[in-house]
Amino acid sequence: MQARRHLSAALLLAVLAVLAPAPGPVSAAGDPHRLFEARCGRCHAHAGGLARERLGVAAGTHLVGRQSGEDIAVFLAGHYGRLTDAEIALLVDLFRFQVLAEGKFRAKCAICHGRARDLARAFLALRDGRLVGRYTGRDVAGFLAGHGRVEPAELPVFLEALTRAVPGDP
């Protein structure tokens, strides 16, 4: 009897998931990771991997395709999906950060913490402009200074990666 109740609940959840309305367009103030997942995720699995593999930086901060040399913003404007200018700006900023961060989180932290985006969404928050533990209120900058394999010079990169991924952060 109990197994039947669990099966019914699971079936109801599956039906609701199918009938739920599709998410609307992501606004310019939205989460760039969620934008990527919603608009690009069907073809491209992960924004960071895609950016580091296929994009490069020219003239300091200008993001271009590694093979084509084409400006990524121009490419995205004509790419499948019909992105708005605001969405393109969000994605270009996300990709630029991913390229410049050189996969440091993945290399040093992912073995224990998975993806930065998932860690930040589940366990971190912004309070009074500071990144803190969602449940402990502990200052993340102070914590990271003595945590794992984070070198002092790398601390800003890790803080920015985590801050960018906190839910609700523009």
Structure commentary:
- The protein has 170 residues and is mainly alpha-helical.
- The protein folds into two domains: 24-102, no CATH class; 103-170, no CATH class.
- The protein contains ten helices and four strands; from the N terminus they run H-H-H-E-E-H-H-H-H-H-E-E-H-H.
- Helix 4 packs across helix 5.
- 22% of the residues are buried.
User: What's the total count of β strands?
Assistant: 4
Q: Please count the helical segments.
A: 10
Domains, number: 2
Low-confidence stretches: 2-29
Distance between the termini: 48 Å
Mean pLDDT comes to 81
Widest β-sheet, arrangement of strands:
1-2
Overall 3D form: globular
Q: What Rg is obtained from the alpha carbons, in whole angstroms?
A: 19 Å
Largest sheet: 2 strands, antiparallel
Helix content: 40-55%
Give the ordered list of helices and strands.
HHHEEHHHHHEEHH
Structural class: mainly alpha
Strand content: 5-15%
